[in-house]
Specification:
Nucleoside Triphosphate Pyrophosphohydrolase; 7-stranded mixed sheet; about 15% helix; elongated; 2 helices
Length: about 170
């Protein structure tokens, strides 16, 4: 992975940062005050919501994967509880209030072009209120039966393919 270029000057003293091997990796280091810049991961939540044997998807209104269908998702803010971030993202994108029922999986870096997520926490949730309507960075929000999935229009995010495959496998066992 290329060295992050978003930090060029020391946030403590303003001195230019240089690349040095520290703690087993190349990192930005301040030669003046010894500050070390650790590039923190970008953590996202992805929420898998089933209602009446149909899955909730949103059509993305933003890059990357604009115009494609995906699960409600978003970044966790610095001071967020991951479960609360998941609840917030579903509400912001769909107008639905949910309750998180379980953690499905945790994924590493998404290699989809344009994706910035380093860690994705996949949750399952159930609807407890609200009215379905696309909001925020979603242009559409809808529930889809397994046989009606917009397969040619699904986003390429690893979380989408993983969750769809698991859902298909679970439905084939019934």
């Amino acid at each position: 992975m290329p060295f992050p270029q978003d930090m060029n000057f020391c946030p403590r003293c303003g001195h230019p940062l240089t690349n040095r091997l520290k703690f087993g990796k190349m990192r930005h280091v301040c030669e003046k005050c010894a500050f070390i810049y650790f590039h923190d991961p970008v953590v996202a939540v992805v929420v898998f919501v089933i209602q009446d044997d149909r899955v909730l998807l949103v059509r993305r209104a933003v890059i990357p994967e604009r115009g494609k269908w995906a699960f409600p998702a978003g970044y966790i803010d610095y001071d967020d509880d991951p479960r609360q971030a998941a609840v917030r993202e579903v509400l912001e994108e769909t107008g639905l209030e949910i309750h998180i029922t379980r953690v499905i999986d945790i994924l590493g870096r998404d290699r989809t072009p344009g994706a910035k997520t380093s860690i994705a926490i996949l949750f399952e949730g159930e609807v407890v209120g609200g009215v379905l309507s696309a909001q925020d960075d979603a242009s559409e929000a809808a529930f889809f039966a397994l046989e009606d999935l917009p397969t040619n229009e699904l986003a390429a995010f690893e979380s989408v393919s993983l969750l769809i495959e698991r859902w298909k496998a679970r439905n084939h066992r019934r």
